[in-house]
Specification:
The radius of gyration is 22 Å and the shape is globular. Helices cover 32% and strands 25% of the residues. Strand 13, helix 12 and strand 14 form a beta-alpha-beta unit. The longest helix has 17 residues. By secondary structure, it is of the alpha/beta class. The strands form 7 sheets. The protein has a 5-stranded mixed β-sheet, sandwiched between helices. It has a 5-stranded mixed β-sheet with strand order 12-13-14-15-16, covered by helices on one side.
Length: 506
């Protein structure tokens, strides 16, 4: 049974906590500072006022190129208060990738978190950004207006969109997922309840606030509960262990690779200092049973798992806190979520029946921004979302992900669409054709492998090609290995056959 949410916009959650618990710590900032809920709300209000003074109207897009910091969070909620659409972009994307998003989103204003991110500073320098008001933003935020005025979105859509999160999509072109306020608010409550968050809990926030995992599961759920976050611009395994000891992280959430990296540098079990740790959670990629076993033995608590995608505001499935699973299931549908396998008319899924996972619920995206064709492929009649993933349920109704459609690679929790990488490789002189596949690694991750077929008579210098890719792609998208191949296998119609290539890597 679904409950009506007491709020309509995400900033209202911060406002309530500032009213009820003004002196409680909301953020443990990088560098040792803290920010209370009252101070965060003051920052959010100041940002909203500043945005309005800059001429931002409801439905204007505000691009924030950055890494996690207080300014990133203030921009998210401040845009909500002003009615603008925040578009968070990971500063570690290449200049080409950031520019592609800028061209598509058409922001009226661009912001850069230069104080915490050398990558953001480089983007800001290239854009000719200048220091924003430090009295509003704090130190190290730069801003630049669009070269020409942009059109603000209007109507109901302008009020319904909480944020736009870009994913490169299977076509290689950026797709802006319009995430609804109602979805984030609904999941904030559901997630907080599923983890039994209280104001005494402290979470660890190294997942990017430009990603749905970081925004919904980490930030929104924490603020809804009035709990605290240790805020970090980038993940560092040794720092995570320090945070477990002090201030005493109780909720540790991240992608599987994060936990793999922690296990690789973990001190002896007897030296672990984690007095408050009570909940481990991983999502964003498949959970390896060996990692689950090792993490549970080391930390002494169950490792929970869930399933979510950018097109839904939060996890759609989560394992139950009172009934940890021994397997790597993604758990059970959260409140408000319906699932079908194969088609909307298929009814309740039968155990073991595999097919496309279709989802319906309050977190379903409002569509892809300025992409009606892509929206029509994903949003089906009746409010159903085609996730693009394949799965099945067991006899208890727990979901298992059987595979990912369209050859998606998940690298360190980030989606890598092969066609985007292939398009960059294919633009390199001497390349006739390329095929990009994923390969499982020993640390429960996936690496990107590129097969490259040269033009007749040409020779590919793989070192020069790597330099080319370094300038064009974010680090997580770059191939770990480039393999020259005489002929890439294809069907008669010319479609690349990737399975034989994957078999060569076995």
């Amino acid at each position: 049974m679904s409950h009506a949410e007491p709020f309509t916009r995400i900033h209202e959650v911060v406002a309530l906590q500032a009213q009820q618990r003004p002196d409680a710590i909301c953020l443990y900032e990088e560098g040792g500072g803290t920010l209370t809920y009252a101070q965060l709300w003051q920052r959010v209000q100041a940002v909203a006022g500043w945005l309005r003074d800059q001429g931002m109207q409801p439905g204007h897009r505000v691009l924030m190129v950055g890494e996690n910091c207080t300014a990133m969070i203030a921009a998210l909620f401040g845009c909500g208060l002003a009615g603008a659409w925040p578009v968070g972009v990971n500063a570690r994307l290449s200049a080409r990738e950031v520019d592609n998003i800028r061209l598509h989103a058409q922001p009226e204003l661009l912001l850069y978190t230069t104080d915490v991110s050398s990558a953001a500073a480089a983007h800001a320098g290239a854009a000719g950004a200048q220091d924003a008001d430090p009295a509003v933003w704090g130190p190290g935020v730069q801003a630049v207006r669009a070269a020409t005025p942009t059109q603000a979105e209007g109507g109901d859509l302008a009020a319904d969109v909480a944020t736009v999160i870009y994913t490169s999509g299977t076509t290689g072109a950026p797709k802006g997922v319009m995430v609804p306020h109602r979805g984030l608010l609904h999941f904030a409550r559901v997630s907080a309840a599923s983890r039994r968050l209280t104001p005494h809990d402290i979470g660890y926030a190294a997942l990017p606030m430009s990603h749905i995992f970081g925004i919904a599961t980490v930030l929104m759920a924490t603020v809804h509960a009035g709990a605290s976050l240790v805020l970090r611009s980038r993940f560092d395994a040794e720092d995570a262990f320090k945070a477990l000891a002090h201030p005493g992280v109780s909720i540790l959430q991240g992608v599987p690779t994060m936990f793999s990296r922690m296990m690789a540098v973990a001190p002896p079990r007897a030296e672990l200092r984690a007095p408050a740790l009570r909940y481990l959670y991983t999502g964003g990629a498949a959970l390896d049973p060996t990692l689950k076993r090792d993490a549970e033995r080391y930390f002494g608590v169950p490792m929970h798992h869930g399933y979510g995608i950018t097109e839904y505001a939060g996890s759609m499935f989560i394992t139950r806190i009172d009934a940890p699973r021994a397997d790597c299931s993604a758990g059970y549908a959260v409140e408000g979520v319906e699932m079908r396998i194969g088609s909307p008319d298929s009814g309740t899924p039968a155990p073991g029946e595999r097919g496309d996972i279709l989802i319906r619920g309050p977190g379903v995206m409002l569509g892809y921004y300025r992409s009606p064709e892509q929206t029509a492929l994903a949003l089906l009649p009746g409010g159903w979302l085609n996730t693009g993933d394949i799965g099945f349920v067991d006899g208890s109704g727990a979901l298992f992900i059987a595979g990912r459609s369209k050859d998606l690679i998940i690298r360190s929790g980030f989606n890598v669409y092969p066609i985007e990488v292939e398009s960059v490789i294919n633009a390199f002189p001497g390349v006739r054709l390329s095929a990009v596949v994923g390969r499982d690694t020993a640390d429960q991750n996936e690496e990107v492998i590129a097969f490259v077929e040269p033009l007749p008579g040409a020779t590919i210098d793989t070192n020069l090609l790597m330099l080319h890719l370094r300038a064009q792609l974010a680090p997580y998208k770059r191939p770990a290995r480039i393999i020259p191949i005489e002929t890439i296998p294809t069907t008669v119609s010319g479609k690349i056959l990737k399975q034989p290539l994957k078999e060569r890597l076995a």
